[in-house]
Amino acid sequence: VMDQKCNTFSRCSSQSLDSVAKATVHRNGYRPCCHGDTSNLMEASCLELALEGERLCKAGDFKGGTAFFEAAVQVGTEDLKTLSAIYSQLGNAYFYLKEYGKALEYHKHDLTLARTIGDRIGEGKASGNLGNTLKVLGRFDEAVVCCQRHLDISQEQGDKVGEARALYNIGNVCHAKGKQQLWGCTQEPGDLPPDVRDTLRRATGFYEMNLCLVKELGDRAAQGRAYGNLGNTHYLLGNFVEAIKFHRQRLSIAKEFGDKAAERRAYSNLGNALIFLGQFNTATEYYRKTLQLSRQLRDQVMEAQACYSLGNTFTLLQQYERAIDYHLKHLYIAQELTDRVGEGRACWSLGNAYVSLGNHKQALHYARKHLDICKEIGDRNGELTARMNVEQLMEALGVNESDLSPSSSEFEMQGNTEILVNNITHFQGIRDGLCLCRTRLRCLSFLFQKLGRDPSDEDCFFDLLSKFQSSRMDDQRCHLDEPQNGDNGEGSANSMPSLNEMIDPAITTSPQTEELFDLIASSQSRRLDDQRVNVGNLPGLRITHNNLGHLVGEGDHQEPSDDFFNMLIKCQSSRIDDQRCSPPEAGPHAPTVPDEDFFSLIQRVQAKRMDEQRVQLPDDQDSPQSPDPEPPGGFSS
User: The pTM is what?
Assistant: First the structure.
């Protein structure tokens, strides 16, 4: 698992809204909650809403924060710096809520606005945020281009902090890309395809450059993240000794800061690497500490993963009773979290352990449960393995399918559980709707308080609504050209040539009407251009005389550079993949099972040790031959 920054919101790539608000107050000469004309009131309300949204997000209430930010966008502002900060904060908040489509939309708005007003630092930070979001969406090539843009701008502006972040982000993209390419590979650890190895080595190169820079800056927290990610990447490359060295440094810095979550990750990563070095007893100590910290943090998913790892490690140590204890704990948590894949894996592990103890009856019970779950989730490979295991155990016990009947209480419980889950889902929908209404009421109440009015005052509500919605009506009106040089409207109208003067009489009498349409189109082209605005699609932007020069004037004569076209080509190259057949979809997500399939790793690396755990099933008395050796734990692999 990547050792990500714990607080993406604090990494926000735009100015703090508090500093933007102070600058706006100083520049425009009003206080955010003052009573004045409508434009000042709306500007102040936008700032107040945005500041409240920022406060809620910093407190961890991202749903409430996004509601206030969206309300600020609805009110709108003419201050471009404020709007850029709101876009960036909204994008980060939606990223936290895992609504990556909306996060991408607002980071794109932020990038567009930063380029329009010539804010190079803001452009670089917006590009970095876009890169992070594209990485999560699996669009790695586009993500690298955006992060590289962030790096180039930071180096151009001499921004060392931005440069360090950009290097870290590019490393993350390469690591995620390499890890995705590893899915489905059957190579031995460290024996990687050349393209995967190159990608992961690129990741280590960027992490090492990031580490050098943050050491120069004296940022210990960033050093810890770099050490953790270097350990993760060397682990994937099969450099387990190097991985352990970096994870121990990560653990030391996590303890220095009291970062329990990072400490838990470091212990887990150390245990994983030690497994491949055959140091199982030391690995169990690290996994126990992982379990202890997961319980302190009340993280059930990580607690289940720690139990899974401990169960498998005790299986390697041939301590099957202790292995069963941890696999049962994993099973209970997986059932509580409705992780059917995790339940199936726990049942498979329990079956292996009971076979090793010679308890074939209990092993058959869990093997049948494993088979049922595989059928339910559509896991064909798991179903074949489970079916073969059931057949072997039935043969060993001398029973037939007809002798085995499902427990009625078990099915009854499953039915009741299904009803309970449906009811919970229904009530969750009602709860979410109530939360949304409550958040909207908080926004209105917040505005009433800033205006010094009673929230129960009906006139106050409609007055506020009309002021905030008035500007939206203007968007539907056509703007007439203003008279120049003191001419009145009539003079301007008379100065325009009439249609009869513009059209050649010979054409009007011609039956070829297409020429007439071409003439009308050419004569009206200038007036169509007058109605266009370069950045009119930016939500929350109120275009005024104060900011029109920034939006239109600066960009009128700029031609795209070669760098822009090169970046565009790189970004669009990955869209060719949309025309290709997609690979088979991955199986269902199993949150309580670690990313690496522990059993497949064990089978490849510890094959000889697994032979010692095999148990011979009873021979047929009539047959003198010994049965063929069984797969690990008496099960087919």
Answer: 0.67
